[in-house]
Design a protein that fits this description.
single chain; 624 residues; alpha+beta; Heat Shock Protein 90; Ribosomal Protein S5, domain 2; Four Helix Bundle (Hemerythrin (Met), subunit A); nine-stranded mixed beta sheet; 24 strands; disordered N terminus; binds adenosine-5'-diphosphate; binds magnesium ion
């Protein structure tokens, strides 16, 4: 039987769907045909990983001392290319079952989508979307030969050839070396690839960190990856930066990295990077992948979600452990106590690194926080275990600091006056908006620091952070704000008192009717005439705006209008009120004050009346 196969190649037919696919691959034009090399190298690397695994699991292998590597030979004159590995090789069944069949389920859709095949398509699209790995070689050649011998000591060697269309043949051959050699002649359109220089360039671009040496002719081309396995002292910054750029698909340098060699209840090595910039948005490729998982230097998963909590997903890098089985599935990594333990250690170390910066490299930390602070804010809403540590890593701008400068809650509390019992904050759409808010006047004047929560996610920050260090977080838009004894007296204008004060407040309430909950004297305003505040159950303006965005029918609780009884305008209105209860000027002024307060918090629905009244007042004021 073996004799027969030796002397005569056996011919096999591809399945119908496969024939169609091959026809298409062969007759299309490509923009990046060179990606075929990445595919063949990745297959070689898979095969090398498999034989290494076979060796560590004590199985007998053919040629146990053969060097694990990939070598590529180029005949520049005749445009021939050969790629050889000392990996696991293939049996006859592998050649039929694995090479002879494309498993991808997307193949059919792909075929119908590209019918005609005349348009130019991207080689990586072909591979990425439709998983035609090995067959991408037909982008650059018309006929391929594989010679292979499986690592099993009893295995025979085989030659497989195909012109792509229709059929392939298999015959037994004499081959001593374990592993696989794939060779072919580059077709006319692809012959520019028959250059050592070009091939080296392609390897550097796509396969630089493959964990086995790749030789082109006599030169080793790739930088052999497993940097994380090396000693800290042996790693150069340039190597680390280059590695980061590769794993993170980023072109910038990282902010810093952690190099972990953990031994004990769980064993792993890791290189974890903090990127220099936050992802640019949804389509940023770096957004997709956080940490890659390796088992014993063998690549397992390219984005192992279970190795870091969601709020630390901005970190990039690799984690390599001995404690998981090589054939570990996503389900198993998810539920494994090994993963849980690694995650705990990684979280701890990343937070530790950030805490170190926050303490002794403040500029770097603040830079980091500007870019990644939102992730940490997400953390306090979702995380219980590390919440206190994350809260201490948060930074805020405040009314006392110039724009761009930030404080921690710890420092805020340390700087509070003795009388101050609560932590004050204001929410709004940006520093310039909250800075001008009338509610801030009192705090400004009395040098009470107010946190500026100007980020949309701060709404969630506030909800998950009701207090810090035993001190309540209080919005300065709340009416029941306890200003305690911090109020200063003396240098201010006298406020209206007694009947006159009571009358004007009552009159304003009559005019505004049920548009407001109440009209009361303000203790907090200094320069402004009036402001809207919420009762202790209500939401502040920012929160309410968000609720309205989510639910069109949402109508917030009624507001309380606080009126500044020291303000000359209010005193004038009080005087008019005593003379003429029904004065139209009084009425219009009250409407104008109310609309103005709405406008300040960006809640004025109908600006027409406001503008019309303003024009009328101006017209009167300018009358000659
Ligand atoms: P994939 O790599 O996604 O499985 P490919 O089309 O690239 O798909 O490869 C198909 C299969 O052929 C591989 O899974 C592997 O079993 C086999 N194969 C390809 N190249 C080699 C090689 N150099 N050594 C051993 N087996 C290989
Ligand atoms: Mg492949």
């Amino acid at each position: 039987m073996a004799e027969e196969q030796h002397s005569k190649a056996q011919e096999f037919e591809y399945k119908a769907e496969m024939k169609q696919l091959l026809h298409l691959i062969i007759h299309s034009l490509y923009t990046h045909p060179e990606v075929f090399l990445r595919e063949l190298i990745s297959n070689a690397s898979d095969a090398l990983n498999k034989v290494r695994f076979m060796q560590v699991t004590d199985a007998q292998v053919h040629q146990p001392d053969a060097e694990l590597g990939i070598s590529i030979d180029i005949d520049e004159k005749n445009h021939n290319l050969s790629i050889e590995d000392s990996g696991i090789g293939m049996t006859r069944d592998d050649l039929i079952g694995r090479i002879g069949t494309v498993a991808s389920s997307g193949t059919l859709e792909f075929l119908s989508a590209t019918k005609g095949g005349e348009k130019k398509m991207d080689g990586s699209e072909l591979i990425g979307q439709f998983g035609v790995g090995f067959y991408s070689v037909f982008m650059v050649t018309d006929e391929v030969t594989i010679e292979t011998r499986h690592a099993d000591p009893d295995a025979k060697a085989w030659r497989w050839t195909s012109k792509g269309e229709g059929t392939y043949t298999i015959e037994e051959i004499d081959r001593k070396e374990r592993g696989t050699r794939i060779f072919f002649k580059l077709k006319e359109e692809a012959k520019e690839l028959a250059s050592e220089y070009r091939i080296k360039d392609i390897i550097k671009k796509y396969s630089n960190f493959v964990d086995f040496p790749i030789h082109v002719g006599k030169d080793k081309v790739n930088s052999v990856a497993a940097l994380w396995q090396r000693k800290k002292e042996d790693l150069k910054k340039e190597e680390l930066d280059e590695f980061y750029k590769f794993v993170a698909a980023d072109f910038r340098e990282p902010l810093d990295h952690l190099h972990l060699h953990i031994e004990g209840r769980v064993n792993f090595k890791a290189l974890i990077f903090i990127p220099g910039e936050a992802p640019m948005g949804y389509f940023d490729p770096r957004e997709e992948k956080s940490l890659h998982l390796y088992v014993n230097r063998v690549f397992i998963q390219d984005d192992c979600k279970d190795l870091v909590p969601e709020y630390l997903r901005f970190v990039k890098g690799v984690v390599d452990t001995e404690d998981l089985p090589l054939n570990v599935s996503r389900e198993v990594t998810q539920s494994s106590p090994v993963t849980a333990k690694m995650r705990e250690i990684i979280t701890n170390r990343v937070l530790g690194l950030l805490e170190d910066w926050a303490k002794s490299d403040i500029d770097r930390y603040n830079d980091f926080f500007r870019k990644f602070g939102n992730y940490l804010k997400l953390g306090i809403t979702t995380e219980f275990a590390s919440k206190d540590r994350i809260v201490d890593l948060l930074r805020f701008e405040t009314s006392k600091l110039e724009a761009g400068k930030v404080t921690s809650l710890k420092d805020y509390v340390a700087n509070m006056g003795e009388e101050q019992k609560e932590i004050y904050y204001i929410t709004g759409e940006g520093r310039d908006v909250v800075e001008k808010h009338p509610n801030l006047e009192y705090f400004r004047k009395n040098a009470v620091e107010v946190l500026f929560l100007t980020d949309p996610v701060d709404l969630f920050t506030v909800t998950s952070l009701p207090e810090y260090d035993g001190k309540k977080m209080v919005s300065i838009e709340k009416a029941d704000i306890d200003l305690g004894s911090t109020q200063t007296e003396g240098d201010e204008a006298e406020a209206l008192k007694g009947k006159e004060a009571k009358d004007i407040l009552t009159r304003i309430k009559e005019i505004l009717g049920d548009r407001v909950e109440d009209v009361i004297e303000s203790k907090r305003l200094v320069d402004s005439v009036a402001t809207l505040v919420v009762g202790d159950q209500g939401m502040d303006a920012q929160m309410e705006r968000m609720m309205k965005m989510m639910d069109k029918n949402f109508s917030g609780a009624k507001k309380i209008l606080e009126v500044n009884l020291k303000h000359p305008l209010v005193k004038n209105l009080a005087a008019i009120n005593e003379r003429d209860h029904e004065s139209p000027v009084l009425k219009d002024s009250v409407e104008q004050i109310y609309d103005g307060a709405l406008l300040v918090e960006d809640n004025l629905q109908n600006p027409m009346d406001f503008v019309r009244r303003a024009m009328e007042f101006m017209e009167k004021a300018t009358r000659g």
